[in-house]
């Protein structure tokens, strides 16, 4: 996860407070802390850094106020859990709305655009199409409790979704459910690649990130039970709101069932 950084007018270069922030950041980097990890106590940090507990407390308070750390009663101070934990598995294909709903949050989405296009060389290769073949492009902003966490662009072979229009996507609680129920498409396995990259300007703005800020980029090709590509997906994820996890049991039967969690749109 990105390690918290914090700046304020109270931090002067070389000041004890600025040093406390830097040492906290370095500690998280050196120890490999991640979402949900507990920060050492004020006393431990004070002794480790040779800085007064008052300065350590002020630094922690500023990071808590900025939402970069959170206090859990008497349990201590922690790196916040992400809003969405997305599973990475070749054998499990679950709608993102279901992932959000299972975590106890209300999923939602905004349809940004829907269009027919021609597959460029990259999309054609991913979907096993000829270059220039017609594809449907669907771009959505995904929400958890009305907070945006990712921007996703789906590319579908047009021949597999004849007659699909934007109104269908607007009305459907889940794109995957729509594709299964109306077009008989199945989702069995997937290839995926996750990296950190600068989000495109439009995606950064939609996610509330600064221009050029790093985001979690996922590219995935989803295959049906016959091994044919059903979707190519490009997903830009907010680095503080999303985490990816690998599933320990990756050999069981395919799980892909949609549940209408609080009737989200899309």
Descriptive account of the structure:
- The chain has 266 residues and is an alpha+beta fold.
- Helix content is 27%, strand content 30%.
- It has eight helices and eleven strands.
- The strands form three sheets. A six-stranded antiparallel β-sheet has the order 5-6-7-10-9-8.
- A hairpin with a 5-residue loop joins β2 and β3.
- The two termini are 28 Å apart.
- The N terminus and C terminus are likely disordered.
In short:
It is built from eight helices and eleven strands.
Describe the secondary-structure layout.
Layout: H1 16-31, E1 38-39, H2 42-49, H3 53-65, E2 70-71, E3 77-78, E4 84-88, H4 96-102, E5 107-118, H5 121-127, E6 134-144, E7 147-157, H6 166-171, H7 175-183, E8 189-198, H8 201-207, E9 214-223, E10 229-237, E11 242-246
Parallel strand pairs: 4-11
Antiparallel strand pairs: 1-3, 2-3, 5-6, 6-7, 7-10, 8-9, 9-10
Helix pairs in contact: 1-3, 2-3
Task: Categorize the overall geometry.
Answer: elongated
Tally of alpha and pi helices: 8
Order of helices and strands: HEHHEEEHEHEEHHEHEEE
Total strand segments: 11
Q: What integer value in Å does the Rg equal?
A: 22 Å
What summary fits the major beta sheet? 6 strands, antiparallel
Q: What class do helices, strands and sheet pairing give? A: alpha+beta
The strands making up the biggest β-sheet line up spatially as 5-6-7-10-9-8
Name the descriptors.
single chain, three-stranded antiparallel sheet, six-stranded antiparallel sheet, 30% strand, disordered N terminus, disordered C terminus, 266 residues, alpha+beta
């Amino acid at each position: 996860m990105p390690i918290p950084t914090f700046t304020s007018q109270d931090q002067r270069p070389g000041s004890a407070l600025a040093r406390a922030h830097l040492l906290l950041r370095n500690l998280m980097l050196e120890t490999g802390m991640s979402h949900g990890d507990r920060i050492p106590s004020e006393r431990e940090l004070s002794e480790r850094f040779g800085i007064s507990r008052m300065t350590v407390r002020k630094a922690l308070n500023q990071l808590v106020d900025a939402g970069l750390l959170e206090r859990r009663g008497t349990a201590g101070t922690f790196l916040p859990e992400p809003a969405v934990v997305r599973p990475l598995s070749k054998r499990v294909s679950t709608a993102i709305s279901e992932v959000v709903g299972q975590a106890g949050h209300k999923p939602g989405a905004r349809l940004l655009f829907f269009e027919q296009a021609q597959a460029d060389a990259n999309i054609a290769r991913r979907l096993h199409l000829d270059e220039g073949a017609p594809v449907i492009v669907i771009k959505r902003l995904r929400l958890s409790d009305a907070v945006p966490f990712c921007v996703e662009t789906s590319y579908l072979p047009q021949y597999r979704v004849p007659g699909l229009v934007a109104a269908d996507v607007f009305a459907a609680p889940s794109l995957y459910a729509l594709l299964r129920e109306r077009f008989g498409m199945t989702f069995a396995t997937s290839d995926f690649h996750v990296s950190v990259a600068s989000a495109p300007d439009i995606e950064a703005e939609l996610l509330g990130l600064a221009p050029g800020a790093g985001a979690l980029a996922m590219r995935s090709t989803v295959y049906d039970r016959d091994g044919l590509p059903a979707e190519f997906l490009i997903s830009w994820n907010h680095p503080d709101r999303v985490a990816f996890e690998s599933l320990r049991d990756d050999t069981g039967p395919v799980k892909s069932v949609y549940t209408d969690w609080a009737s989200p749109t899309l």
